[in-house]
Amino acid sequence: DGKPVSLSPLESQPHSPRYTASSQRERESLEVRVREVEEENRVLRKQLSLVQSRGPAHHRGNHSKTYSMEEGTGDSESLRAGIVAGNSSECGQQPVVEKCETIHVAIVCAGYNASRDVVTLVKSVLFHRRNPLHFHLIADAIAKQILATLFQTWMVPAVRIDFYDADELKSEVSWIPNKHYSGIYGLMKLVLTKTLPSNLERVIVLDTDITFATDIAELWAVFHKFKGQQVLGLVENQSDWYLGNLWKNHRPWPALGRGYNTGVILLLLDKLRKMKWEQMWRLTAERELMSMLSTSLADQDIFNAVIKQNPFLVYQLPCFWNVQLSDHTRSEQCYRDVSDLKVIHWNSPKKLRVKNKHVEFFRNLYLTFLEYDGNLLRRELFGCPSEADVNSENLQKQLSELDEDDLCYEFRRERFTVHRTHLYFLHYEYEPASDNTDVTLVAQLSMDRLQMLEAICKHWEGPISLALYLSDAEAQQFLRYAQGSEVLMSRHNVGYHIVYKEGQFYPVNLLRNVAMKHISTPYMFLSDIDFLPMYGLYEYLRKSVTQLDLANTKKALIVPAFETLRYRLSFPKSKAELLSMLDMGTLFTFRYHVWTKGHAPTNFAKWRTATTPYRVEWEADFEPYVVVRKDCPEYDRRFVGFGWNKVAHIMELDAQEYEFTVLPNAYMIHMPHAPSFDITKFRSNKQYRICLKTLKEEFQQDMSRHYGFAALKYLTAENNS
């Protein structure tokens, strides 16, 4: 299926080698052209409203309304005339859309790939829209989890989302054999009259592989042109599929002429219900399946069979409302210029690889939204009151309580920043082991650590939960990287959760919390992306969890950390081999040269000869890597970038009376890399260090308030260190 992603114009992002500088310039110029066309339309609308305000009374002039610039046809003869003459807009009785009228959009979405596609579609709609939007998403459990989190963290004003359980609808359509790649979900548009609220009168229905090149209000305005018993707005199919001449013995479902494509549908729900649509399509499907045996194009075959019997149901939309880039398409007859384009439909299984003489242009338009910074779409609709959003109101309240003159304001603000989050960016499939000993490796990373993924997957065969801090464009680069990696594509037990870039700090603890929250195992190994676990650590930890009764005790199992300064390392296969390398100076205990206190309490001297787990006590600045139950406390979000992010978490585990136990036959090795941007800021920026010290003191005070007398030792330890 198609793919999505985005680009932050506020930051300089690396570009994929696949796209040349000229391609980048094309996309940029395309975006400029789209905006120019948008401005031209705005001027035309203004001129039109002035003309109508001077004209006869029946040409209602109302400056609080937006006028659709497109005149539909309603019959194929005038459609063909429109193609010949070009898609020129008529200026007679223009249908209107109220300025703040809510536009309803329904989309069927199931699975991981479709969830990515929906984001690109929604971006294209949001980019052009001037009206409030209400999305009705018919989603399976996977898509609902992903999209609910995405929209909750996106926080776009004047956008409402409702979900409908696609799995509950399966029984309504599962009796229809379907050969189309969309599977059972490709039939669910047939039951929208039953699924959507009974008081919803009209809705635009879209496939996930759609890209908008204009304001969706123009399409919504076409509802005003429906007459008589017209209840379906559809574009004629732009291939010869329903003509039955594509190959020998090709036998399509019955259709009116070329038939209609159901990638874009206008549904008059109230009239359809009165016409008993449910009964109408079921009877038609049952009759045709007796001879056809199955559908080839899912719901589209059944819609066309109904229309063949009842042609009066259709209002035929101009073909630029669904420019179909399928195989054998006639879509080139639908446009003469970029300004003619309204909706592009990637309805070939090949998606972006489809053959079309203008496919580069269409692909660039798609990539513009794919890589567009979604944060820029959080703009208010001026003059249209938004529904009260509790999360948004709480955020504004928290931010208003901060002092903008505080030199540490940006640090404090980051704690409350809501980062747009796309869970399970790639396919994920994993059932935890039934013995309740399963452990997930948890880590976070940015684009510059991507090269560590394959190595970690080779060292750790168990489930992994990763939070990636990326721009929209980087997320697309990651997608291409992952899909090109045999190692990563062979693993379905790695959850990739994209947290989109915003602000000037690396929100390390937010990323850790996101990765921790979305594990499906009872235990987790809290690691960092620069570490390679020893071979066999996954199975060793599962045995340790049982032996040390982690299920019924508050323990944090410590995996001793080492490091190498060599980029090429013959990884030790055993503890004995590691000790030998330690003696030779090939390996060191982690941060031995620069931050001994961080891991000194692990007691490496004792570990060298230990054969059984041993307990160690908390000390100031201790920050080991640990295995804990999934119900352990989250990381404190006030710590961003470099400094104290793990130390504070270990301190809180100690305050909650976790027992620190060192595993005698476990180890992990830190691999060398260039210094991170945040550690460079810490070293070079005095104010950064001052703010970090302030945040540390405030955290310790909070600990004292929360845990009482027992937490005073943290203040004392800090003063003595």
UniProtKB/TrEMBL annotation:
For the region Disordered, give the residue spans.
1-32, 49-75
The UniProt keywords, alphabetically, are: Glycoprotein, Glycosyltransferase, Golgi apparatus, Membrane, Multifunctional enzyme, Signal-anchor, Transferase, Transmembrane, Transmembrane helix
Compositional bias of kind Polar residues: 9-23
| Domain of life where this protein originates | Eukaryota
Q: Where in the cell is it found?
A: Golgi apparatus membrane
Q: Name one Pfam family in it.
A: Glyco_transf_49
Q: Name one GO cellular component term.
A: Golgi membrane
What topology does it adopt in the membrane? Single-pass type II membrane protein
Which pathway is it part of? Protein modification; protein glycosylation
Q: Key word Magnesium present in the record? A: no
Q: Name one GO biological process term.
A: protein O-linked glycosylation via mannose
Q: Which SUPFAM superfamilies match?
A: Nucleotide-diphospho-sugar transferases
Return one GO MF term: xylosyltransferase activity
Instruction: State the reactions this protein catalyses.
Output: 3-O-[beta-D-GlcA-(1->3)-beta-D-Xyl-(1->4)-Rib-ol-P-Rib-ol-P-3-beta-D-GalNAc-(1->3)-beta-D-GlcNAc-(1->4)-(O-6-P-alpha-D-Man)]-Thr-[protein] + UDP-alpha-D-xylose = 3-O-[alpha-D-Xyl-(1->3)-beta-D-GlcA-(1->4)-beta-D-Xyl-(1->4)-Rib-ol-P-Rib-ol-P-3-beta-D-GalNAc-(1->3)-beta-D-GlcNAc-(1->4)-(O-6-P-alpha-D-Man)]-Thr-[protein] + UDP + H(+); 3-O-{beta-D-GlcA-(1->[3)-alpha-D-Xyl-(1->3)-beta-D-GlcA-(1->](n)-4)-beta-D-Xyl-(1->4)-Rib-ol-P-Rib-ol-P-3-beta-D-GalNAc-(1->3)-beta-D-GlcNAc-(1->4)-O-6-P-alpha-D-Man}-L-Thr-[protein] + UDP-alpha-D-xylose = 3-O-{(1->[3)-alpha-D-Xyl-(1->3)-beta-D-GlcA-(1->](n+1)-4)-beta-D-Xyl-(1->4)-Rib-ol-P-Rib-ol-P-3-beta-D-GalNAc-(1->3)-beta-D-GlcNAc-(1->4)-O-6-P-alpha-D-Man}-L-Thr-[protein] + UDP + H(+); 3-O-{(1->[3)-alpha-D-Xyl-(1->3)-beta-D-GlcA-(1->](n)-4)-beta-D-Xyl-(1->4)-Rib-ol-P-Rib-ol-P-3-beta-D-GalNAc-(1->3)-beta-D-GlcNAc-(1->4)-O-6-P-alpha-D-Man}-L-Thr-[protein] + UDP-alpha-D-glucuronate = 3-O-{beta-D-GlcA-(1->[3)-alpha-D-Xyl-(1->3)-beta-D-GlcA-(1->](n)-4)-beta-D-Xyl-(1->4)-Rib-ol-P-Rib-ol-P-3-beta-D-GalNAc-(1->3)-beta-D-GlcNAc-(1->4)-O-6-P-alpha-D-Man}-L-Thr-[protein] + UDP + H(+)
Q: Which family, according to the similarity comment?
A: In the C-terminal section; belongs to the glycosyltransferase 49 family. In the N-terminal section; belongs to the glycosyltransferase 8 family.
For this entry, the protein name equals LARG1 glucuronyltransferase
Protein species of origin: Aegithalos caudatus (Long-tailed tit)
